[in-house]
Write a structure and sequence with these properties.
Blueprint (H helix, E strand, L loop, with lengths): L2 H16 L5 H8 L7 H8 L7 H8 L4 H7 L2 H5 L2 H20 L6 H14 L8 H7 L7 H26 L4 H10 L7 H5 L4 H13 L11 H16 L2 H4 L3 H19 L14
Helix pairs in contact: 1-10, 1-16, 2-7, 3-7, 4-5, 8-10, 8-16, 9-10, 10-14, 11-13
Length: 281
């Protein structure tokens, strides 16, 4: 399949999965368990792995300031079990989708989309994909709108694991990857530094490190070598997804995008500026 199409699949469905990080239903569900603030993100996304330590979260999430993770994990597991947090996450996704989609949630288009996405998720594999593997070990939901969300979650985490592997081949640290992403100017200045809680000193060190590679110019933009290196990582990430989306073929992929487009548009108001593009890995 064409790499541009593979990338379009990721971008087209990221909102349907990624809304769980921003909808008010999620924060409310975690708060009922005593999980508040940024702890909700780290605990809910890692809950499928069980009561893992902060080092595992730092490794699989890749680019957050470790201090931010240590402040959340393992304290989250002292407040609620991973099983309860995962159930709260799925319940929040259910509530948010029902609120946003309304009566459309029961339409046959959602059921058809769910089946197509589930077929694509069947192309994922466990080896070298720890965050995907943890989610793949969980039971599938039964409601079509949640089957769709879960399938896209599996595909998203599978892609993220592959993206980290691609960045590791370049020897990139988490903060270096963020500096490179920020240098594309897709997001407002400072977005990734603040969302990952890196200090000015740490960020400046990351910038110097990328500049030392010859990938960043003095003005903070990517050099030709930097652009080429980033494109290599992005292309490899997409190539690793071919085995998933090729199960649908060109027509199946086009049909899935068509079926989910109304739901994605309806979910956009719940997303922050830049949407799911604030997420890397």
């Amino acid at each position: 399949m064409d790499i541009a199409q593979i990338r379009a699949m990721h971008r087209g469905f990221e909102v349907y999965h990624g809304m769980i990080y921003f909808v008010p239903e999620a924060a409310a569900a975690y708060a009922e368990l005593g999980i508040t603030g940024r702890m909700g993100y780290f605990a809910s996304r890692s809950s499928a792995m069980g009561a893992v330590g902060p080092e595992t979260v730092i490794s699989t999430f890749f680019n957050f300031n470790p201090d931010l993770v240590y402040a959340a994990i393992p304290e989250a597991w002292n407040r609620a079990s991973p099983e309860r947090i995962l159930a709260a996450r799925i319940g929040a996704a259910d509530s948010a989708l029902r609120r946003v989609l309304g009566e459309a949630i029961g339409e046959p288009e959602i059921a058809e989309a769910a089946e197509l996405a589930r077929v694509a998720a069947g192309g994922c594999y466990l080896e070298g994909h720890p965050l995907y593997a943890a989610h793949a070990a969980q039971d599938w939901p039964t409601a079509p709108h949640l089957v769709l969300w879960w399938a896209l979650t599996l595909l998203r985490e599978f892609r993220g694991d592959g993206h980290i592997a691609a960045m590791n081949t370049q020897g990139l640290s988490g903060i270096e990857a963020l500096v490179i992403h920020q240098a594309t100017a897709v997001l407002p200045p400072g977005t990734l530094q603040s969302s990952r809680a890196w200090s000015d000193e740490a960020w400046a060190a990351g910038v110097r490190s990328v500049q030392a590679r010859g990938w960043l110019d003095e003005a903070g933009g990517l050099t030709a070598d930097g652009l080429a290196a980033r494109q290599w990582v992005e292309d490899l990430t997409d190539e690793l997804m071919v085995r998933c989306w090729s199960l649908l073929g060109d027509d199946g992929c086009a049909r899935l995008r068509e079926l989910t487009r109304p739901a994605v548009r309806a979910l956009l108001p719940d997303m922050p500026r830049g949407g799911a593009r604030t997420k890397t890995a």
